[in-house]
Amino acid sequence: MKYKLIIIFLLLISCVDNEEILGQCYVAPDPDAVCIEIAEPVCACNDLVYSNSCYAQKAGNRLWKSTNLESGDKCNY
After folding, report:
1. Domain that holds residue 28
2. Among 1, 21, 27, 36, which residue's CB has the most CB atoms within a 10 Å radius?
3. What is the rounded (10 degree) CA torsion for 50, 31, 19, 12?
4. What pLDDT is recorded for position 53?
5. In total, how many domains does the chain have?
6. pLDDT tens across 39-71, in order?
């Protein structure tokens, strides 16, 4: 019985926070986020170019800046 309570407690704690921070720049991706198709390329802190800031955030990036590069290119944040 004691072990069952510990397991339940650990499961409850792990389900409280939906955003797992993986560093100053990156959190767990949100594959269910819905983004609009507006071309405003951004260089995200993982050094990849996304078509707009919504897609960068959906991929888990917390930081980005505008760029003139094409989506999918490498950049230098």
Report:
1. 20-77
2. 27
3. -170
4. 96
5. 1
6. 999 999 999 999 999 999 999 999 999 999 998
